[in-house]
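Subject line: Sequence and fold of a protein, written as structure tokens
Body of memo: The sequence and its backbone structure tokens, given next.
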Amino acid sequence: MAPLLGCCLLGLCVVAGDAEAQSLSGRVLDGETRTTLPGATVLLMQNGVRISGQITDGSGAFEFARLSAGRYEIESSFVGYDVRRDTIDVPLKRPLELILTPGRTMLQEVVVASQRVDADRYAAGLQVIRPSDLARIPMPDVTYDLAGYLLTLPGVVSTGDRGGQLFIRGGTPTQNLVLLDGMRIFQPFHVVGFYSAFPADIIATTDVYAGGFNARYGGRISSVVDIRTRNGSKERVSGSASVAPFVSGIRLEVPIRKEEASLILSARESIIDRIAPQVLGQDLPFRFGDRFAKFHAFLTPTSSVTFTALRTSDTGNLGGSDGSATPQPQRRSTWKNEAYGGRFIYIPEEAAVMSELSVYYSSLQSRYRQTAQDVRQADVSELSLNIGFTYLLGLNQINFGLFGNTNFFDYTFGQGRSEVSSGVSSGGAFIEGRLVTSEHLQIEPGLRIEAFSRGLRRTMAPRLRLLFLPGGTGSRHRLSLAWGRYHQQIVGLNNEQDVSDVFTVWTASPRGTQVPTAVHYIAGWQVRPRPWLEVSVEGYRKDLSNLSFPVFSDEVGVLAEFSQVNGRAEGIDVKAEITSRRLYMSATYARARVAYVRPVQRSRAIFLAGTGQSILLPRIDFSPPHDRRHQVGATVRLTAGDWAFGSRWQFGSGLPFTQVNGYYTGLEADEPGTTDFLFDEGSTLVSRARPYGGRMPTYHRLDVTLEHTRVLSAADLTVQAGVINIYDRANIFEYNIFSGERVDQLPLVPSLGLRVDLR
């Protein structure tokens, strides 16, 4: 670690040279919540002539270096805010704070195109999502949602509109790290898959790393979705309310103490299960909801405290319906998320360093009932403590911190199966830096050291990200690379005989085995040939090793043991976007392949009948259930005055599953030479085909929306009409191997919603 820290400090000292030139630095802030505004535009002018321009970084900071002393004009702006202009004299005694006031113009009327480069927003494997991005994606009601946007990204695979599972570039849902204000969320999406567990209007920004993420993130080997929520308004009471067939919600922001403390509350509840029989003539037996609360307060001008709480609940009859309007109790499946956390931040006046202390607790309770007799349960919880420090040195910065996590697991795979309980812990430290060596090159080295209670006792995970701008600031081309090594002590298990991945067990990696590991390689190229057109291409490869994969015996639903598999996920993602005042269009294509290999190994739990000898498991090459080879998407949003039309089309090739040949009765003799077993009832055994040798049908769907907004004196009123699955495609979701019953994704569903936003 010492050599890496020395290199980082040496690089920073080199960049910080030229003591004779003056510099101008500062931050851009929201005028109501005092939160920073990453991606804001800051222009520097002298005598009416523009001499430089920047985009604020992830902490809302900017810096203009090598300036001569004198008077300058500075202009700051951000989507949805009024433009601010100031006159300043350089040198300044302290950094600037440019406070922007939220504008009154409706979001859909704001020009969101940019001809400048936001280096923090576009890099290898990274997509930064802001509320204005979410507003472009058609949803089945009058509000927007993060899940809907994620499904438009190439490389993101979903099992469909039911189930709430996302696979990102070859990783399973349990290999994705989803954080809400630093809290790990185990089930981040609702049972109706285009809704996340948190509404869009509480989100400030979201960083989505499809791979190659920094050293501050750990415990997962595939991807990171890091969501940061807004602070409530400290100036006045505000809020919104919406009513729609899928979900209705309310949001309230209350200043507890003006300019110092605030509380934001949000609640959503679905109503589709209660109105579907009357409106559609069929059941949609799903009910879900979420509750969110966040308290934020400035203790001093340089310190603050935050308390956050989230609770979600999902209920669904995933195994079918008996014709009633609500899920039947004897076949009902449930999921419940809880997350609570607190964060303290301190920035001393005499030093450019931020200290952070955070404590979080999160849990998930799952109850899955495929039949009246087959009940499975899985509980997981986590307690986390983190201490971090960030040194801000102009455009450069160094982050380092300490962390510790403890997880507890309880699960059973079905009726008559014994409950399994276990727990694991991990802890360590990380250091990472961001070095802007010139206007052409940004380097982000990092190292994560972590000790696990299972498998590897200690790991060192180096990481590196590079961003190259051939033309310097304002370059049309952006070339980026990312590489890193990642470890994950906890694993997710699915039953091989399930057609979908609705039910997942979280548990510890087996004792005596290596911790699952991944190595990421990503190369990306983004180009803006025209101010309104951007094209990006990324190629990636993830080498996976020591993955724990379940081996089931011939007895139905019985987990015999874990096997160790290796694998590789590789592919290419292409995206083209057109952005203008009235039109937004995007087209995506993803070509991917995920392959697993189970090498020859001896089973420790499956024995030859009557011999006591273990079975030698042969080598198997197979594609896991999230191996979607081809994926295509197209999104359009057209605005005309107070009206907006949106459409979204998705296509995905079929996903693998294990076919079942049939069932038979197994009889076992108590003693050699006896025939008493011929009169026993025996046990039901299953005959399976080659693992994941079958493919489900292709998935595709078209959604359309039309909305109208009226700006009133005290509120904004929005009415939206839409249709989900407009050509009524019968996309398969689940197949019950016991009853032969097929369950499809959502049918054609019309919707009509109303939303009111208080001014």
Observations:
- The radius of gyration is 27 Å.
- The chain has four helices and 48 strands.
- Confidence is low (pLDDT under 50) at residues 1-20, 104-120, 320-329, 607-612.
- Residues 2-15 form the longest helix (14 residues).
